[in-house]
């Protein structure tokens, strides 16, 4: 009579365990990538929200004034002014800060004529001393209305 030999089932169990660990490793890798992507989406959403608030403020100032650099500085202090532009610097929490410790920069370029007043708003993310990444640019325009008294004089 022939002896029937049975193989140990530990080899099959070991193979199954390897597949389970491989599957768990791949699943963990996907989850880590999803969490990283959701964090970056949150950072971009926060940036967009602050940019929207600041552009709205700049538009309201432009609408209510003649759009000069002095009017912007009076209503939005803490800016560094040139002849026709103002730079505002923000830290990573969007609080006003100095240029040296800034993470974000908002630049307003004001211009006005007899018919239109406008401001170009540019947002940049400061990577290091020599590198800036443009985040958003928007031009806000309002017509200049003359009053009847100005037209008569």
Concise summary:
This protein is of the alpha+beta class. It has helices spanning 10-64, 69-75, 148-152; strands at 80-81, 85-90, 104-112, 116-128, 131-143.
Explain this structure to me?
The structure is a single chain. The protein is of the alpha+beta class. The chain has helices spanning 10-64, 69-75, 148-152, and strands at 80-81, 85-90, 104-112, 116-128, 131-143. Strands 1-2-3-4-5 form a five-stranded antiparallel β-sheet, covered by helices on one side. A hairpin with a 3-residue loop joins strand 3 and strand 4. The longest helix has 55 residues, at 10-64. The chain is rod-shaped. 11% of the residues are buried. The model has no long low-confidence stretch (mean pLDDT 87).
Computed structural class: alpha+beta
Q: How far apart, in Å, are the first and last alpha carbons?
A: 127 Å
Poorly predicted ranges:
none
Count of helical stretches:
3
**Which geometry do the CA atoms define?**
rod-shaped
Helix content: 40-55%
Beta-strand percentage? 25-35%
Biggest sheet: strands, sense, closure?
A: 5 strands, antiparallel
The ordered H/E elements are: HHEEEEEH
Average pLDDT level: 87
For the largest sheet, list the strands in their spatial order: 1-2-3-4-5
How many distinct beta strands? 5
Please state the CA-atom Rg, rounded to the nearest Å: 30 Å
